[in-house]
Automatic annotation (TrEMBL):
This is Nucleotidyltransferase. CDD domains: NT_2-5OAS_ClassI-CCAase. One of its GO terms (molecular function) is nucleotidyltransferase activity. InterPro entries: NT_2-5OAS_ClassI-CCAase, NT_sf.
Length: 369
C-alpha cells in the first residue's frame, strides 16, 4: 500500500486557491456585502448576508484556463414569496447593480452574476420562510467569512481562542440532544420555473463540517483532489460538476478514512460499485430535491465511464509497493500538479517517502494527506 503523504500534501498545495486568489475573493465579497447593507433601498429588505459555496466549504480548487475564482453570497431578505414573483424579486436589485456594477452583471435563473476583473461574484437572493429564523440567520458565525478550514481544528479539539469560534461550533455542530438550534430551508427565486424553491446552504455547510470531522479532516481534501481530476482530465465531460459532483463524492466517501489517498480510492470504487445508473441524490436539508435532476442519463453514463477508468488507476497507485511506480500512477490520475518522484536508481529507498529533493510546501491546518 502506498499513500505517499508528502506528495499528496504538495499536490493539495498546488491545486488550492492561492493567497492572492483568496485575498481577491475577500475583497470582492466584503465590498459587495458592505454596499448591499448600506444601500438605501435594499437595506430595508435585507435580513443578513452570508457566504456559501465551495469557498465557504473549503472544497474549492484554483481556476484554470483564464477563469477567475468565484464566491457565492446569500442575501436573505424579508420579501414575501406570496407577494413577489421571482422576476420581481431579482429586479429589485437592478438599480443597485446599475449603480455599482454597471455592465458587469447578468440576471441568471436563480441568482445574479457579477464579473469583475479579478473575481466572479454570485448574488443569491433568498427569503426566510419565517420570522423565527431571523436570529439564526444573523448569527455572527454564519455571517462571518470563516471557512471550514479556518475553524475545523478548533472544532475537533473544542479549543476556542475567541467567542466567534465558539459561536461557530454552536451553530454548525449542534447535536440532536440540543434542539434549541434549528434552521429551515430558505426560499430562492427561480425565474425560469417562475416559482420560489427551497434551498438549504446552511445545512450543506453543517453536513460538510460533520463529514470532514468523521473523515479525520481528510474529506474536504478528497473533494478537492477529485474536483481537480474531473476538471483537468475530463474537461469535455459536461456533468456532473461543481456542487452536484461534490455532493456525490460526499455520499460515496466512507467515514474514518486514514488519508486522502485512501479516500480517493474508496470513493471512486464506491461510485463504480453502487451507482452504475444515475442515482437520485437527496439534497442536504431539502430531501425531496434531486441534486442530479438536471443531469441526463447519457451525461451520467459518460461520467461513469471516466470513474471506472479512474478507480482502476487509483487502486493500482494505492496498491503499488514501489514509491516511483505509485507516484507515476497518481500523476496519471491527477496530472502534472501531482509532484513527480525521483527515478528508482536515485532513491534512497524503494518504499520510503523521504527521498524527495524538493521541500514540501506548508499546508494550513486541516490540509492533511
Amino acid at each position: 500500500m502506498s499513500t505517499v503523504p508528502s506528495y499528496f500534501k504538495d499536490f493539495l498545495s498546488n491545486i488550492r486557491l492561492t493567497d492572492n486568489q483568496v485575498s481577491d475573493l475577500k475583497t470582492g465579497h466584503t465590498t459587495l456585502r458592505k454596499r448591499l447593507e448600506e444601500d438605501e433601498v435594499l437595506s430595508k429588505i435585507i435580513i443578513s448576508t452570508f457566504l456559501q459555496g465551495s469557498y465557504r466549504r473549503s472544497t474549492a480548487v484554483k481556476p484554470k484556463n483564464g477563469n477567475k475564482s468565484d464566491v457565492d453570497v446569500i442575501v436573505v431578505t424579508n420579501l414575501d414569496s406570496e407577494e413577489y414573483t421571482p422576476e420581481e424579486a431579482l429586479n429589485l436589485f437592478v438599480p443597485f447593480l446599475d449603480k455599482h456594477y454597471k455592465d458587469k452583471y447578468r440576471i441568471q435563473g436563480r441568482s445574479i452574476g457579477i464579473s469583475l476583473s479579478y473575481v466572479d461574484l454570485d448574488i443569491v437572493p433568498t427569503s426566510a420562510p419565517s420570522e423565527s429564523e431571523t436570529g439564526v440567520l444573523q448569527d455572527k458565525a454564519i455571517i462571518s467569512e470563516y471557512t471550514i478550514e479556518d475553524f475545523q481544528q478548533k472544532l475537533l479539539t473544542k479549543s476556542f481562542d475567541n467567542a466567534l469560534f465558539e459561536s461557530t461550533y454552536n451553530v454548525f455542530c449542534k447535536s440532536d440532544e440540543e434542539p434549541q438550534w434549528k434552521s429551515e430551508p430558505l426560499l430562492i427565486p427561480d425565474r425560469e420555473a417562475e416559482k420560489w424553491d427551497k434551498t438549504h446552504p446552511l445545512e450543506q455547510i453543517r453536513w460538510t463540517v460533520e463529514k470532514n470531522k468523521n473523515c479525520n479532516t481528510h474529506y474536504i481534501n478528497v473533494v478537492k483532489a477529485l474536483k481537480w481530476w474531473r476538471k483537468t482530465q475530463y474537461p469535455e465531460i459536461k456533468q456532473p460538476k461543481s456542487y452536484p459532483l461534490e455532493h456525490f463524492i460526499g455520499d460515496c466517501c466512507p467515514d474514518d478514512i486514514k488519508n486522502v489517498a485512501e479516500g480517493v480510492v474508496l470513493t471512486l470504487e464506491n461510485m463504480v460499485a453502487q451507482y452504475p445508473d444515475k442515482p437520485f441524490l437527496a439534497d442536504r436539508g431539502v430531501p425531496e430535491h434531486d441534486v442530479f435532476a438536471r443531469i441526463t442519463n447519457e451525461e451520467y453514463s459518460d461520467f461513469y465511464d471516466t470513474v471506472c477508468d479512474a478507480a482502476k488507476i487509483a487502486r493500482e497507485a494505492f496498491d503499488c509497493e514501489e514509491l516511483y511506480d505509485s507516484v507515476c500512477k497518481w500523476r496519471e490520475l491527477f496530472g502534472n500538479e501531482f509532484p513527480s518522484a525521483p527515478e528508482p536508481s536515485k532513491s534512497n529507498s524503494s518504499t520510503g517517502f523521504t527521498a524527495r529533493s524538493e521541500k514540501s510546501t506548508a499546508v494550513p491546518v486541516g490540509r492533511f494527506a
